[in-house]
Design a protein that fits this description.
Layout: E1 2-7, E2 10-19, E3 22-27, E4 30-38, E5 43-48, E6 51-60, E7 63-68, E8 71-79, E9 95-98, E10 103-108, E11 115-116, E12 121-127, E13 130-135, E14 140-144, E15 152-153, E16 158-162
Antiparallel strand pairs: 1-2, 1-8, 2-3, 3-4, 4-5, 5-6, 6-7, 7-8, 9-16, 10-12, 10-15, 11-14, 12-13, 14-16
């Protein structure tokens, strides 16, 4: 998955691959290997190279507050390039909501046939121990919702199709 991250006014392109606590990252193209383990509720341990880092994580609507000993930063995350959640968005015809990353469907928030508004939450996907609510890219009628709770999905998997509402 690819994100645009904003930390203290600085933007960074973040590419993440991996699972089960072992991740290969690219930060603005620079490779980084990271091991991640839980250190208790709200706390995480990172092993980067030979150095261990203990930090706290607080989920925010657009990212995380990362708490280090003696300081904290807010990290805002957005799927890269306005995100694959926006992929398939056209002025005419159906809009397709796709998974921006591999993960597991935690909650399905709307059913096929429902009228939805732009920005309405449709599905929650969990990846890398983070829950991400994916929203309708436009208003319309939900034509398809081919996923179910507990289902594993790959990046690019079809999650929903939104028609014009006719």
């Amino acid at each position: 998955m690819i994100f645009d991250a904003s930390v203290s006014g600085r933007s960074v392109r973040v590419e993440v691959r991996g699972a089960d606590g072992r991740y290969s990252l690219r930060l603005d193209g620079q490779p980084l290997e990271v091991w991640v383990t839980s250190a208790g509720p709200g706390f995480t341990s990172l092993l980067i190279g030979a150095k261990s880092h203990e930090l706290g994580l607080e989920r925010l609507p657009q990212g995380y507050r990362v708490v280090f000993p003696g300081s904290s930063v807010t990290v805002e995350l957005a799927p890269a390039g306005r995100g694959s959640a926006m992929a398939g968005r056209h002025a005419h015809g159906p809009a397709r909501l796709t998974a921006p990353m591999p993960g597991r469907i935690v909650r399905v928030l709307a059913s096929a046939g429902a009228d939805v508004v732009a920005g309405q939450g449709l599905v929650v996907i969990e990846a890398m121990k983070m829950e991400n609510e994916l929203k309708a890219p436009r208003a319309g009628r939900l034509q398809e919702m081919p996923v179910r709770e507990g289902q594993a999905v790959e990046a690019g998997a079809l999650l929903a199709v939104i028609g014009s509402g006719d």
